[in-house]
Every structure is written in structure tokens, then in C-alpha cells.
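Input (Zinc-binding protein):
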Amino acid sequence: MRRLLLALPFAMLPLAVAHAADEHDHEHGSLDAHEHGVGRLNAALDGKTLELELESPAMNLVGFEHVATSDADKAKVAAVRALLEQPLALFNLPKAAGCVVENQELESPLFGDKPDADDDHDEDAKDEDGHEHHDDHSEIHARYQFTCATPAALKSLDLANIFTRFPATQKIQVQLIGPSGQQGVDVTAKAAALKF
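Output:
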């Protein structure tokens, strides 16, 4: 599954560099900045194989980023995980494409996964008064691989259900490789579909 998605960053490098320069001008940020309200989606369609990788701050999906300790927080995490375990409904793939889920992986510290040393975004910082505080930035990563019997029926990718089910998500930065080539686009609830 990772074969296509691992190639995606290299194929999208020219777009990423342009986007990084644009972001730098506006926010002095980086491509991997953890920004509430903004998720990322990598999508690759190669023959009958569709791979999707969704990365989002936990705040967008769950409403918080701390480890769930209360029963209410644990229930919220379980409900979000259950939604993410239904990618055919989440991504609203056309029935005519005949897509079936071949593989899926969900990762997040909120699901009990340990963050990689390289991906650890816990930062210790001091505020104006010199008091130390901890800034936890939990992310949720969902990877899906589908086999589609009729990939030609995948004319577009509709992300409306993500915005509906996770209203704190305001924008999804999409990098897509499909039969028409590659594209990078920001998708919002008002314009939630993009063409393959």
C-alpha cells in the first residue's frame, strides 16, 4: 500500500515547494505545520488501486488532543475511530466504481499508539512569565487501500462527508495523482469535490 503513497511526495514536490513558499510568505510556517481546522489528504489512483491517506490534527476530528481519560472523551475517540473505519461512507466513493477496502490503518496517540520519535510534536515552551507549559499536538493518520472493479467510474473524489462528520475541519489540502496527472488543491465544505 505504501508504494504509491511513498512516491506521491516526490511526484508532488514541485507543488509542495510552491505551496511552501506561499505559506512562508503568509505565515512563516512549514508544510508539516500542525494547524487546527486544516487536514491533509494524499490520494493516488493507479489502475484498479486507489490509495488514500488522511492526516489531521485530532482537534479537527475529536475536538481535543489530550489522551482521553474521562468516559465522555473515551466515547468520543471510539465514535471517531468507528467513523474512520468506514472509509467507503466517509469518502462517498461512487457505487458504480465497485471499490472494496483491501487494507486500512489508523494511527494516533489517542488510539493508544506511541508516536514515532521523529513525529513527536510535544514541545516544552515558556510563556511570557517564564512558566513552562506543554503543548501537545496529537494527529490522527488514516491510510486506506481500495481495489476498484471499475476505476473509470471514479470521476471525482467527494469529501463532503468529512466536512459534515467533522465540522471543525475547515480545509483539506489534497495532493492527488490520477489518470489525468497530478494536482494539488485546497478543498473546503463549499467546494468539497475534486476531479480525478
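The chain has one domain: 2-27+35-114+139-195.
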